[in-house]
Design goal:
Layout: H1 3-15, H2 23-34, E1 38-42, H3 49-59, E2 64-68, H4 75-79, E3 80-85, E4 90-95, E5 102-106, H5 113-125, E6 127-130, E7 133-136, E8 142-147, H6 160-163, E9 166-171, H7 177-186, H8 188-197, H9 204-215, H10 221-236, E10 240-242, H11 246-262, H12 270-281, E11 286-287, H13 289-293, H14 298-308
Parallel strand pairs: 1-8, 1-9, 2-5, 5-8
Antiparallel strand pairs: 3-4, 6-7, 10-11
């Protein structure tokens, strides 16, 4: 078994002591952290978005910080600032909460465009600039940003450039049926105790090894061409205002490789690409307003693209 699979299996198994009905989300988030991909998590309050992030960070032995976005948050509240020390008569660097391996940015769409732009450099360049001084962020570095899909008053929609920097989008759904009953039986106090008892199961060095294993997964020319056709079709579709970018194509390839490796294969197949399409493309394909009014959804468009684009034959 690959180091990659051992890490993901271990995180899924151990996190189930704390989280109920969140296995598929834990898998995807762990996939992303291994490749230092940023994650956009969409879901209503109270469905364990923060607890999921904290649990995974603890199991991966990574530092964790949380930024609660509000309308009046400043870039310095995120990246840090320089403070004048009267004793030494020098300005000292005071790093903000962005300086951690896993940064949970809660309700990112409540931050002003100015604050969101401060996050943009950190997400893309893995560094921040404070009063002209550049500071490298720790490795691995992943931003988990959450947004509430219902409460839109007082929010600032994320610009296309920032949306495209997220590796995947995870739409976290409320618990239902047996999972909800299991959560109720577990109880809040039991969950808190289980979380406190969690122990790291890997080291950061093993995460780097797992990332290298993903890079080594073989991709046939037919699969490259399949991804290219999907991307091209997304840009030609009549309902699409903005299709998949070249960066999105690379992200689709990476997640397909991860699905292949998790399935104990060192080569990709078209089904890996199909499986990766919804989480990678759902926030990258933007629809024209008139088609949204007619009831079209991004999910429906992606399914249509996968139906229309010819699949490579083995």
């Amino acid at each position: 078994m690959s180091t990659f699979s051992r890490i993901v299996d271990g995180v899924v198994e151990e996190s189930s002591k704390v989280l109920v009905g969140r296995q598929k989300y834990v898998e995807l988030i762990t996939f992303s952290i291994i490749l230092e991909g940023h994650i956009l998590i969409e879901g209503i309050p109270g469905i364990a978005k923060t607890l999921t992030a904290k649990t995974i960070a603890k199991l991966l032995n990574l530092t964790f910080s949380r930024i609660q976005c509000t309308v009046d948050i400043l870039p310095s509240d995120i990246i840090g600032t320089k403070i004048f020390n009267q004793k030494t008569s020098n300005f000292e660097l005071r790093l903000g909460p962005i300086y951690a391996n896993i940064v949970l940015v809660d309700e990112i769409n409540r931050a002003s465009p100015r604050a969101q732009s401060a996050l943009l450099e950190a997400m893309q360049e893995r560094q921040v600039t404070i009063d002209g001084e550049t500071v490298k962020l720790p490795k691995p570095f992943t931003v988990l940003a959450t947004q509430n899909p219902i409460e839109l008053e007082g929010t600032f929609p994320l610009p296309e450039a920032q949306l495209d920097r997220f590796y995947i989008k995870v739409e976290m759904e409320p618990l239902e049926g047996g999972s909800l009953v299991k959560l109720l039986k577990k109880g809040l106090r039991s969950i808190e105790i289980e979380f406190e008892n969690l122990k790291p199961i890997v080291s950061p060095e093993q995460i780097f090894v797992a990332a290298e294993e993903v890079n080594q997964v073989y991709v046939d020319d037919d699969v490259y061409e399949y991804i290219a056709r999907i991307v091209e079709y997304s840009n030609r579709h009549q309902a699409v205002r903005l299709g998949v970018t070249p960066r999105g194509a690379l992200m689709l390839l990476n997640l397909a490789k991860e699905f292949a490796l998790y399935d104990h294969r060192k080569y990709t197949i078209p089904d890996d690409v199909k499986k990766a399409s919804q989480p990678v493309l759902s926030h990258r394909i933007l629809l024209k307003p008139e088609y949204i009014a007619e009831g079209y959804s991004t999910k429906k468009i992606i399914q249509e693209i996968l139906t229309k684009v010819e699949v490579p034959k083995p």
